[in-house]
Structures are given as structure tokens and as C-alpha cells.
Sequence to fold (159 residues):
Amino acid sequence: MSISHLSLSGGPPEDIDPKDSYLITRSIMAEPDYIEDDNPELIRPQKLINPVKTSRNHQDLHRELLMNQKRGLAPQNKPELQKVMEKRKRDQVIKQKEEEAQKKKSDLEIELLKRQQKLEQLELEKQKLQEEQENAPEFVKVKGNLRRTGQEVAQAQES
Fold:
């Protein structure tokens, strides 16, 4: 096959076998000298050794991580400070949403809250009056009872 069979997009046309397309790309690329010649004078490239990966500590750590992953125990990815900051941010967002919900109360809700506050105030006033009456001396209580009975008698006579 020749290079003229390549399409304008740079890739092989669809009707060419994938094995042939490999050959086409291989023919375009320059091949290194050491593949063709078995020249003993040439220095052959070798893969560099990574000292981190060959260290015993790294291998132990990698083995431990793999075992934990198989067990389903994920390592703590985030530092404690980051977790605390995220929690604060979440709490702040929740507070903002609650405040917005309170601000968006309808007229009916506002009116119901006002009535509820008035009722609570009235109940507090009633409780204060009852406490004052209970703490009042005996003669004040008797005098109040006499007035009430006198008013009831007067109303009964009028009707």
C-alpha cells in the first residue's frame, strides 16, 4: 500500500484492514537505528529505574493500599482541616436557606404568627394575675369574692 491511500483527515480510510493501517503509520515514522543493525558499538536505550517504586517503603504502602481497596476501606483523602471547613460551609448554607425561607413567608403566615404572639402574651398575663391572686392576703380574696357576689345579685335583681 502506498501513502496515497490515506484520506485527507490524516487517518486511514475505512475500507483498509486495521493491520494494514498499522503498516502505513509504521512506514511514515522513522525507525531507530538500533533495530535494523546489530551493531555492538551502539548503546541500546534501557528503561530508567524509578528509585521511588523500587524502595521497600513504597512497595509496602502500595501493597497495603491494594489490600484496603479490596476490603472496601478507602484511605482518608481529606485532611482534618479541610473536613472542618467543608462542614462549616455546609452549616452556613443550611442557615442561609432557613433564613431565606423565613423571609419568604406569606401574608397568612405573618398574620398567624402575630395572633400566636398575642395569645401567648394573654396567657402570660392570665398566669401573672393568678399568681398575684394566690399570693394576695386572705382579706383581699374575701373582699373580691364579696364584690363578685354583690354584682351577681344586682344583675339577678335587674333581670
About this structure: The chain has two domains: 3-71, 107-150. Helices lie at 18-28, 33-36, 51-54, 56-71, 80-103, 107-135, 138-158. The longest helix spans residues 107-135. The two ends are 126 Å apart (CA to CA).
